[in-house]
Amino acid sequence: MATWLDGLRRNLIARHDSDSPDNRDPEMIHRLYSLLKRPLWRYFRPVISGLERIPEGPGIYVGNHNGAMLMPDVLIFGAALYERFGVEDLPHGLAHSFGISLPAVHQLLTRLGALRGSQSNGVKLLEAGRKVWIYPGGELDSMRSFWRRDRVIFGSRRGYIRLALRTGAPIIPFVVAGAHETLLVLDDGRWLARLLRIDRLLGVKTWPIVLCLPWGLWIGVPPPHFPLPSRVFVEVLEPIRFDRVGEQASRQADYVEACHRLVHGRMEAALRRLLARRKSGNSLEQRGLRS
């Protein structure tokens, strides 16, 4: 027991190179999968489709983000990818520089294979034939208000498009419906982040006002909380490849914006379709329970 605790302590304080793809720990990933798969599937009852659309070789997974810091969408989709493709074809996440620097979070994310989010790290991974996993909206999307849960919020962030154009790698869009209903975001708090200068101090543009268990009303990024039960639907869409690629294409603002509108439009349409499918399925389940 003492040896195990010593190893755990060392792992919790060890610092890794956040720009290296070689920190991934396959044994830890398998243990997490074995530990989380059954409770995740029992609690969220996920419906996952479109995995057969995922191409071989390098690619950029682009998703909508949900559930604040709890991120049930990450856990569910990651488990599904691991089960289907194994650790060899798991994407490397490109994480916010602030988030990946936090104690304990740093050790977990780097051992899962995440790198600091940057164009250079994305290019490095894709040129090595690997896949990357990006949430362009970041905190804007994961902490959007409950009343905008049918929206994909990327703001002005277009780095994911420029990365695809620079490398020629396809974008693999995926959408998640239901994961943003595990808490209630009353307001995304962009105004509060500006007022408190948190956007400058921490590099995050939201400081939300939320209701969650067991904390009740919370102002700011909520700590780990107990998720409300919510059925989660995930769909991988058809990969998107652009006609013009290369460094010059990535520098043409109008073309970058047109590519973004194409990806964003398909994702938002798919999200609304999934939400309608989820609502219909929930209604049918409730009727079945009553009959």
Named at the architecture level, the CATH assignment is 3-Layer(aba) Sandwich
Low-pLDDT regions: none
Tell me the major beta sheet.
7 strands, mixed
Taking Cα atoms only, what radius of gyration do you get, to the nearest Å?
19 Å
CATH class: Alpha Beta
Secondary structure tally, helices? 11
Tally of DSSP β-strands: 10
Which structural class do you get from the secondary structure elements?
Answer: alpha/beta
Helix content: 40-55%
- The CATH topology turns out to be Glycerol-3-phosphate (1)-acyltransferase
Query: In what order do the strands lie side by side in the largest sheet?
Result: 1-10-6-2-5-3-4
How far is the N terminus from the C terminus?
52 Å
- Helices and strands, in N-to-C order? HHEEHEHEHEHHEEHHEEEHH
> What average pLDDT do the residues reach?
89
3D shape = globular
Total number of domains: 1
Strand content: 5-15%
Which structural traits does this protein have?
291 residues; alpha/beta; Glycerol-3-phosphate (1)-acyltransferase; seven-stranded mixed beta sheet; 11 helices
